Amino acid sequence: MPNETSVIQYNTDTFENTHVANTDELQEVLRPIDSLISKSEKAQQKLTPGTWQHTMLRDNLKALRIASTLLNKEKYDTHSFTRDDLKEALHAFASMINKTEKAQAKFSLGTSQHTLLQNRLKALLMSEAIIKSKLG
Asked: Which residues contact residue 66 at a Cβ distance below 8 angstroms, ignoring those fewer than 6 apart?
């Protein structure tokens, strides 16, 4: 049975209007995304190219960078992504969300690990929602 913090959903129809307008909330989403990008880049350097782990991190990094660009839409050109790029990003986000939910379930509510994963999950779900909104 999922705990209440793991059941976070975002309506893609209202995402553009409600969530991006709030700068504080945007920063709450960008912080975990930027952290994941940084950690993934460091981890990928330690992996052998061609392994499934290296390939998975490459795909996750591409998805995270797409999300970061879309969330920073005022600063960057967001029209450079193809529908295939966005679909691949959705697949990567589904995997990252699943893994984050499983990891979060292992930690007690109120612990620093649980809070970290809760913030990460919120960012992943919001990123997934904005990508879905771009796919229409």
From this structure: 81, 85, 86, 89, 131
Domain 15-135 sits in CATH 1.20.120: no
- Nearest-angstrom CA–CA distance, 112 and 134: 33
Q: What is the DSSP letter of 1?
A: -
Rg (CA), the chain: 15
Entry pTM: 0.81
Domain spans of the chain? Answer: 15-135
Per-residue pLDDT reduced to its tens digit, 81-114: 899 999 999 999 999 999 999 999 999 999 999 9
Distance CA 49, CA 64 (A): 19
Alpha-carbon distance of 129 to 67, in angstroms, equals 10
